[in-house]
Amino acid sequence: MAYQAGGQRSEPRPVPESLEARAYLQDYATLLDAVSFPSLVLDIRWDVVLANTAFETLFRGVGTHPTAMPGDNFLRFVLFHPDASTVLGDHESRWCLPMLAHFAAAVERHGHDHGLQSIRRDIAQDPIMEAAYRHGLPHWIRVVGEQGVEHDGAVRPLLHPDPRWGATDCRVVDETPRTLRDMGYTRLTLVLRPARRPVPAPRRAVRPRRTAGHLSVVPAPEA
User: Which secondary-structure segment (H or E) carries 48?
Assistant: First the structure.
């Protein structure tokens, strides 16, 4: 069922003060769970406020992580979880770099936010990711253009644990109503497409885990 995500975070997520706002979120969770595709509601720091069963199913095979679970903070999952590439196809170029670009924009708008500052510190602790963020990312944005950065409408590869989907694509759809937007939230739905090809189970079982310094598609600047 749709849930308000929990887990270990750098700071507690604020709860809407208004009873009406909380009632709206409760009803919206019911609506979210009626959707068959993975769907989630995020705040400005990518903390997951609500997510549905289909979202939970998509990431059911990932290992535990103290700060980067997909139902906790989706940006941290994409950037820091060692199992992210087992679900997010073409992880570096199609998921990680667009998310870094959105994070950079969020830091410009909300640089004082403690949650964003915490993520920024963790990026700085990974030398390759830091080089990509500070030096490679601006060049990558110029190359791919605004369409390569935008979430809404982007088609991105997935490796779904359900063999009925398998190796497939999803279209990311931003369907944020005004009430959620006024709360500072964004709703994204991953509209799944039929499987492109079967995913051999043994290959997925031995897929290399991502380690720190994984952004090979954006080389570090030469000294």
Answer: strand 48-51
Query: How confident is the model at residue 142, as a pLDDT?
Result: 87
Q: What angle do CA 116, 120, 122 make, to 5 degrees?
A: 120
One-letter-per-residue 3-state SS of 56-91? HHHCCCCCCCCCCCCCCEHHHHHHHCCCHHHCECCH
CA 72, distance to chain mean position in Å, is: 10
Q: Within 13 Å, how many C-alpha atoms sit on residue 102's CB side?
A: 21
pLDDT digits (tens, 9 = 90+) for 156-187: 999 999 999 999 999 999 999 999 999 999 99
CB 77 within 8 A of CB 70: yes
CB 11 within 8 A of CB 115: yes
Q: In terms of pTM, does the model score above 0.70?
A: yes
Do 136 and 219 contact (CB within 8 A), yes or no? yes
Q: Tokens for 196?
A: 């492109």
Residue 75: both structure tokens together: 């940006």
* pLDDT tens sequence across 90-147: 999 899 999 999 999 999 999 899 999 999 999 999 998 899 899 889 888 888 887 7
Query: Torsion angle, CA of 126/128/130/132, rounded to 10 degrees?
Result: -150
